[in-house]
Every structure is written in C-alpha cells, then in structure tokens.
Amino acid sequence: MPAGRILVVEDEEKLRRVVELHLESQGYEVEGAASAEQGVPLAAPVDLVITDFRLPGMDGIQLIKQLQSRGVAAAVVVMTAHGSVETAVEAMKLGAADFLQKPFSLDHLSTVVEKVMAVQAMRNENRRMRDELDGRYQFDNIIGRSAAMRDIFQTVERVAPTRATVLLAGESGVGKDMIARAIHHHSPRSRHAFVKINCTALPENLMESELFGYEKGAFTGASVSKPGKFEQADQGTAFLDEIGDVPGNIQVKLLRILQERQFERLGSNLTRNVDVRVIAATNVDLRAALEEGRFREDLYYRLNVVPINIPPLRQRREDIPFLALHFVQKLSKDLGSRAKDISPAAVDRLLEYSWPGNVRELENTIERSLVLASGEMLQAADMRIEAARSANSAAAAQSQNAPLLPEGETLEHWEQMMIKEAMRRANGNKSQAARMLGLTRNALRYRLSQMGMDAGTEAAGE
Ligand SMILES: Nc1ncnc2c1ncn2[C@@H]1O[C@H](COP(=O)(O)OP(=O)(O)OP(=O)(O)O)[C@@H](O)[C@H]1O
Ligand SMILES: [Mg+2]
User: Fold this and answer.
1) Once rounded to an integer, what is the mean pLDDT over residues 311-333?
2) Residue 404 domain-assigned?
3) Domain count of the fold of the chain
4) Residue 370 falls inside a structural domain
5) Domain shared by 271 and 162, yes or no
6) Atom of ligand 1 at shortest distance to CA of 180?
7) Worst-scoring range by mean pLDDT, 71-80, 275-284, 289-298, 388-397?
8) What is the CATH number of the domain that holds 162?
9) Segments forming the whole domain that contains residue 421
10) Contact residues of ligand 1, CB 6 A cut-off
11) For residue 361, how far is its CA from the centre of ligand 1 (angstroms)?
C-alpha cells in the first residue's frame, strides 16, 4: 500500500522531477503534469495536489477553483516564488492546505506533505464512516454497526408489519424509545397514534384512570368523562415504558388488553374493544421480579412474544465511532459549532470509557464537547467525559454493597484503560507510565505485551 497519491503540477521540468523522485522515495505514488490543464483530469483520484503558482495557461489559483468546482477531494499545496506572500495568502483563503515558498529544502517538503497527508487521511476516514452511516449502519436515525444492533434492525423490520407484542429490554439510554418508535413508524399503524405511557410516574389509582379512562362521577373531581391512553392508541401503538413498575391490579387489566383487547373505563360497566399494538420496555431484569412475585408470570409471557434485548454500549464498542460522528454532525448544526468532524484520537478516548449512561451519555458528552471546542475537528483534549460520574462511582464504591466497578465493566478492561491512560499521559514513556501506576517498568512491559501494545511503541517514548 502506498502512503498516498500525489500529483505534482510544475512546468519547470527539473524541479518537478526532483520533487517527484523525493516523494516517491518517501513511499508515495506520484504523478506529474507540466500544466494545470494537464493536471485537472489527473487530480480526481489523488490525495494531494502540489502545484506551482505561476504556470503557462491556468495558474495555481485557477487550478484550485477548477478542482473545487469539480468536487475533487484532494488537498492542495501551492508552491510560490520567494517573497510573494500575497499569493500564498490568497491560495490559503481559497482552501489550500499549505504553501511552499521557493526555494524549499526536501526536508521541508517532506514535513509539509506529511502534515497535509495526515489531515487528509483523517478526512478520508471520516468520509468513509459517513458513507457507511448513510447506508447499512443506519435504520431511520438509529445508528448501529455491531452485530447486535444489525440483528435488532432485522427483527424490527420483520416484526413491524405485524401486531405482535414486543418487549424491549436494556439499560437506561440504550435506545428503547427510539426502537419502539421505529417499530410503530414501519408498521401499517403508522398513520395512527403512538401513545407513550410511563408506568413509573403515577400512583396506582391515577394510573388506572390514565390507562383506561373514567366516566363522569367515577371519583370526586371526575366532572366529565375521559378516554384513557388505550383508547387514544386505538388502531395505533401503545408504548408501556418501565413495565416492571406496574402494580399488580393493573397487571391483571393489561393482561386482559393483551388477550382480549377489552377493558372498561373506571366507573363504567360498559366493555370496550380496542385495536392496539403493545410495545413494552424495561430497564430491569423482569425475571427477577417474576421470581419475587412482583410481576405476573402470565403477563410476562404475553409481553415477551418478541423479545428485543438491546445490549449496553460498552458491550458493542464498535458502534461508538459511528454514533460519535453521527452526533457531531447532528448537533454541530443545532449548536452552531464549527466542528464538523471528530479526530481518531478523540474517538479513542471515547472507546476507553465504559458509558454507564449508554448512548444518552455519549450524546450529552459530544454536545458538551462541541460547546467547548473551538477547532474544526473535535480533538482528544476536547472530550468532556463527565468526571463527576467517575468521582461519584468512586465514592459509591466505598459503601459495602455498591458495586466496585461500573456495571458490566470487567477488572481486565478497567486495568487496560488505566494502562492506556498512563501511557497517554506519559507520552508513551514506559518508565514514567510505570511510576504513575506503581509498577516496575518490567511489570508494565509485560502487561503491555499481553495487551499487544509492546514493541513499536518502544522508540517513541524512550
Ligand atoms: N442507536 C442509536 N442511534 C442514535 N441515537 C441513539 C441510539 N440509541 C440511543 N440514541 C439516543 O440516545 C438517547 C437515549 O435514547 P432512548 O431515550 O431511546 O433510550 P431509552 O433506552 O429509552 O432510555 P430510558 O431507559 O432512560 O428511557 C436519545 O436521545 C436517542 O436519540
Ligand atoms: Mg426510554
């Protein structure tokens, strides 16, 4: 694999050959052109165009404009004559990545080219991810590249057209709401209501009147009759959030809705029929509630016709880069932020964290980072991963029954995060990182080799 493709546009043949040969010796694939006119058709597939400013025919500035109007994605570096700063400034204003003032040393040429190519590689990577986002790894606005999420998309597609009851299970912030809405949206019921019912927020008697409605005079204050949420959801979808919190009496009535699609309003003997599709969600393990007798078994089986378990984000880390880029693009517009991209180092930081608040926490983190960042690309240093949260969990860990590690986190992964963080803070210097971790240098080297992070990094820090 060449390090990248470069086009050199220079009418002075000797200089062009020198530049070409030097770049080839650095591992680039290089093409030459003696004029901008010759260069334009060669530019589409390259990563970088290095062009002289003064050329016969079209000049360097016109070349930049030509390339832009053709949508060529290559970066441009302009070679200018000694002392012609205005030209360089003009070129940069038009979007040139850098300039080289003649005469330049081959070392300087290498430095500039390396820098521009590194930025270009990042752009390409972002573009590649964006293309993928546009296609396979997205269902409506739900992003997911992991096998688990793609399975979920398939299930959603299969189950949406039916009236089957769906039980969504997953921690807070994994996307249960989004999936419930997607199922409704892709169902023949999509033109009717999607009614969300939050089962935690209400005391039992209120919940009953909310869900099933009431007749005038059913209780003090019931001065008019009112339909309940299930009636509102007729022909549409009822989404029962936090189903595990529903009290026993109401569980019986839900069972009847699921079995017979029938109910009565509070204070009425009239049995009503309703055509409703039920989707339920829980962020606790309902089986525990079953065993403790807090949740009816018959209702559980009626709800669990199509179970969809959404794994926590830390168990599908490959989704993190895609989600991060998606949120950068979505939020940067709303926030009027300059940042439209996220650097690989910033993504690495996100990958190292365990995300107890799942996708919601990732979205909030990106939002906070966008507000505080100033550049066009979010950098590692811009990542505002909530420190308060880790401090809280450290304090919580002091009490006897609180978990030592964030839920789902393993000691091994936690240790690796610490080691990576130490190496990062020590700029790759192992002795320094070992001191931070209270390890001998050899012990650290051993752990790094276990993590596949030894060799290679040796030269960098020491
Ligand atoms: N796969 C995803 N792609 C894009 N955005 C997502 C994804 N998953 C979650 N989100 C976003 O994360 C946030 C939380 O998602 P959602 O409200 O669906 O989670 P939830 O599982 O219902 O959480 P809770 O249990 O707290 O109600 C929302 O802003 C949602 O847009
Ligand atoms: Mg929710």
Assistant:
1) 94
2) no
3) 4
4) yes
5) yes
6) 18
7) 388-397
8) 3.40.50.300
9) 410-462
10) 141-144, 170, 172-178, 283, 323, 359-360, 363
11) 9
Ligand closest to CA 138:
1
Query: How close is the Cα of 14 to the center of ligand 1, in Å?
Result: 60
HEC profile for the chain? Answer: CCCCEEEEECCCHHHHHHHHHHHHHCCCEEEEECCHHHHHHHHCCCCEEEEECCCCCCCHHHHHHHHHHCCCCCEEEEEECCCCHHHHHHHHHCCCCEEEECCCCHHHHHHHHHHHHHHHHHHHHHHHHHHHHHCCCEECCEECCCHHHHHHHHHHHHHCCCCCCEEEECCCCCCHHHHHHHHHHCCCCCCCCEEEEECCCCCHHHHHHHHHEECCCCCCCCCCCEECHHHHCCCCEEEEECHHHCCHHHHHHHHHHHHHCEEECECCCCEEECCCEEEEEECCCHHHHHHCCCCCHHHHHHHCCEEEECCCHHHCHHHHHHHHHHHHHHHHHHHCCCCCEECHHHHHHHHHCCCCCHHHHHHHHHHHHHHHCCCCEECHHHCCCCHHHHHHHHHHCCCCCCCCCCCCCCHHHHHHHHHHHHHHHCCCCHHHHHHHHCCCHHHHHHHHHHCCCCCCHHHHHC
Q: Which atom of ligand 1 is nearest to the CA of 362?
A: 12
Of all protein residues, the one whose alpha carbon is nearest to atom 4 of ligand 1 is 142
Task: Report the predicted TM-score, pTM, of the whole model to 2 decimal places.
Answer: 0.66
Together in a domain, 13 and 126: yes
**Whether residues 151 and 207 fall in one domain:** yes
pLDDT of residue 1: 59
Around ion ligand 2, residues with a beta carbon closer than 5 Å are 176-177
Q: Do 232 and 365 have their domain in common? A: no
Last residue of a domain, one of 254, 280, 309: 309
Give me the chain's average pLDDT, please: 88
Instruction: Pick the residue whose CA is nearest to atom 5 on ligand 1.
Output: 142
Whether residues 128 and 22 fall in one domain: yes
Out of 91-100, 368-377, 406-415, which region has the weakest mean confidence (pLDDT)?
Answer: 406-415
